């Protein structure tokens, strides 16, 4: 019985050690466009940044003038919002990145063509 108790104590000590010394992964939050927010010409904003699945993009904008549509590559490249696309319109939207390619455009006429679009790869 004492031997079993000793084994349990060692197992708990090892578990505690691993919990305290393991790296925890936290999602990062990125404000799209930094202080300027979701705006014309923001398409280069991701350059030089690293994104992971689970990271959060915060889109801040005037909701009377813009929105954020989650699209696929074709929608991004053609600046078209498909009928089944998720469209955010609050002016302060937080969207979690999925692993792989993530595409966003402003669905207001002409805005995507003027640089309100993002293509982001999340590892």
From TrEMBL:
Residues 28-123 form the Phytocyanin domain. GO terms for cellular component: plasma membrane. The keyword Cell membrane does not apply. InterPro entries: Cupredoxin, Phytocyanin-like, Phytocyanin_dom, Plantacyanin. Pfam families: Cu_bind_like (PF02298). The keyword Endoplasmic reticulum does not apply. Transmembrane segments: none annotated. Keywords: Copper, Disulfide bond, Metal-binding, Signal. Coiled coil: none annotated. Residues 1-27 form the signal peptide. GO terms for molecular function: electron transfer activity; metal ion binding. This is Basic blue protein. It comes from Theobroma cacao.
């Amino acid at each position: 019985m004492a031997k079993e108790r000793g084994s349990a104590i060692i197992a708990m000590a090892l578990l505690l050690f691993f919990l305290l010394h393991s790296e925890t992964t936290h999602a990062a939050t990125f404000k799209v466009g930094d202080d300027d927010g979701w705006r014309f010409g923001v398409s280069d904003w991701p350059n030089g940044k690293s994104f992971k699945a689970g990271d959060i993009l915060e889109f801040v904008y005037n909701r009377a003038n813009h929105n954020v549509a989650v699209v696929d590559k074709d929608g991004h490249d053609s600046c078209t919002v498909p009928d089944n696309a998720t469209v955010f319109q609050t002016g302060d939207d937080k969207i979690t990145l999925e692993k792989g390619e993530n595409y966003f455009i402003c669905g207001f006429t002409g805005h995507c063509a003027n640089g309100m679009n993002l293509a982001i790869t999340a590892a």
